[in-house]
């Protein structure tokens, strides 16, 4: 990358503690400790919650030659791999081959996954406690659409 770039992690304002068991309260507390203490100088309060901003600068002698990336994506491409795809799409002249990624162009959910118990139904569901935001300026809320679509049966 020849230009600085960054992303943020959103810790939403949610009142979910009453829906968590003791173990999940403990793990959610540890994750908040990690971000709030570890990122004490990186955070700011927003209307949606606490945002932790991470900025990256290119190294002084970065490679400026031509880079060709053959990236085969599909519905199983998510989380960290989608982050890499998003950054390549935003900041490099990368070409994508395959199918649309299941992870979003703008980021994904993660960080900690407490189990919420719905009070009336007693139904339990896993809930992502954080949102990674990779491109604040985009309203794209789907996965990354490849430049060349390759059908899945091609890989079989």
Concise structural overview:
This protein has two helices and ten strands, in the order βαβββαββββββ. The protein is of the alpha+beta class and 156 residues long. A hairpin with a 3-residue loop joins strand 2 (43-45) and strand 3.
Give an overview in words:
The protein is α+β, with helices and mostly antiparallel strands and 156 residues long. The chain has one domain (5-155). The protein has 2 helices and 10 strands; from the N terminus they run E-H-E-E-E-H-E-E-E-E-E-E. It has helices at residues 22-38, 79-91, and strands spanning 5-12, 43-45, 49-56, 70-73, 95-98, 109-110, 115-117, 124-126, 130-133, 148-149. It has a 5-stranded antiparallel beta sheet, with helices on one face. The chain has a 3-stranded parallel beta sheet with strand order 4-5-10, with no helix packed on it. A hairpin with a 6-residue loop joins strand 7 and strand 8 (124-126). The chain is flat, with a radius of gyration of 18 Å. It starts with a strand and ends in a 7-residue tail after the last strand. 19% of the residues are buried.
């Amino acid at each position: 990358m020849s230009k600085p770039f960054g992303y943020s992690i959103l810790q939403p304002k949610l009142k979910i503690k009453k829906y968590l068991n003791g173990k999940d309260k403990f793990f959610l507390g540890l994750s908040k400790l990690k971000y709030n203490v570890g990122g004490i100088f990186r955070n700011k309060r927003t209307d949606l919650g606490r945002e932790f901003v991470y900025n990256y600068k290119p190294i002084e002698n970065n490679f400026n030659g031509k880079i060709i990336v053959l990236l085969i994506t599909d519905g199983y491409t998510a989380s960290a791999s989608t982050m890499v795809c998003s950054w390549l799409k935003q900041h490099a002249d990368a070409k994508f081959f395959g199918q649309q990624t299941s992870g979003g162009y703008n980021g994904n959910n993660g960080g900690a996954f407490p189990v919420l118990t719905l009070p009336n139904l007693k139904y339990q569901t896993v809930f992502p406690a954080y949102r990674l935001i990779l491109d604040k300026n985009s309203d794209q809320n789907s996965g990354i659409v490849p430049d060349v679509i390759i059908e899945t049966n091609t890989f079989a």
